[in-house]
Design a protein that fits this description.
This is KaiC domain-containing protein. One of its GO terms (molecular function) is ATP binding. The protein has one domain (8-228): P-loop containing nucleotide triphosphate hydrolases (Rossmann fold, 3-Layer(aba) Sandwich). It contains seven helices and twelve strands. The protein has helices at residues 14-19, 40-53, 67-76, 99-117, 127-131, 137-151, 177-180; strands at residues 8-9, 24-25, 29-34, 58-62, 89-93, 121-125, 157-165, 168-172, 183-190, 199-207, 216-221, 226-228.
Length: 235
């Protein structure tokens, strides 16, 4: 990758890349925010696998599921894993309940790992578990800001996933990450007025430095891919 300001990093989800004006900006930071069941991890895995297919290297850091479960998720989609694991793809499980270890690994060891691997795509799933380590709001904001600023020095495009607030499907769990990243993709359920069926929908809420779609578009999680219908409407 050249690192040009206008260079695009594609998700490999055709409809979503169209909504993003061709993809994420190179070396930008994106957050996918959504309630449970909206497919945040699946979007993140497709982002990683698209990079692998393009000859890039990727790191997937899970704060929730074991590495073996992530491997199984990839294999169930019919994607080749054995050709990449340990050479182009590195899946790391961190324990957010161990405060000192989690902080040191994310703050100190992650930049070293990115450089040693040569990773151009990095995922943290979900960042809200890292935020939850801190019980003080001011400390949480300070540490998340430090982390985001640290990652801006790395030659990679960073994707974070975050749960939503329990009673607000439009905001991340701690209402912080969307203010600190460059791009926010919101995944949510839309229920028509007749209550007949729930439709998952994606929206690019924010994207610094680029034009983007402001429409809300339906999507579907298929066995082997995510499909965003950029030409369709949710109603």
């Amino acid at each position: 990758m050249t690192g040009d300001l206008d260079e695009r990093v594609q998700f490999g989800i055709e409809g979503l890349d169209a909504m993003l004006g061709g993809g994420l900006l190179h070396r930008s930071i994106c957050a996918i925010v959504g309630t449970y069941g909206t497919g945040k991890t699946t979007f993140a895995l497709q982002f990683v696998y698209e990079g692998l297919a393009r000859g890039e290297k990727a790191i997937f850091i899970s704060l929730d599921e074991r590495a073996e479960m992530i491997h199984d998720d990839i294999r169930r989609k019919g994607w080749d894993l054995d050709g990449y694991l340990g050479t182009s793809l590195y899946v790391v499980k961190l324990d957010p309940t161990d405060f000192t270890v989690a902080i040191n690994q994310i703050r100190d060891e992650l930049p070293r790992l990115i450089r040693n691997v040569g990773a151009t795509r990095v995922v943290i799933d979900p960042i809200s578990l890292f935020e939850g380590i801190f019980t003080d709001d001011a400390k949480r904001r300070q540490e998340l800001y430090r982390f985001v600023e640290m990652m801006r020095d790395e030659s990679c495009t960073l994707l974070l996933t975050s749960e939503t607030l329990q009673n607000n499907p439009y905001a991340s769990k701690y209402s912080l990450v969307e203010y600190m990243v460059d791009t926010v993709i919101l995944l949510r359920y839309i229920r028509p007025s007749d209550l007949s069926e729930v439709h998952p929908a994606a929206e690019v809420v924010k994207m610094r430095g680029s034009n983007h779609s402001r429409e809300i578009k339906p999507y579907e999680i298929l066995k082997d891919r995510v499909q965003v219908y950029s030409e369709a409407n949710v109603f």
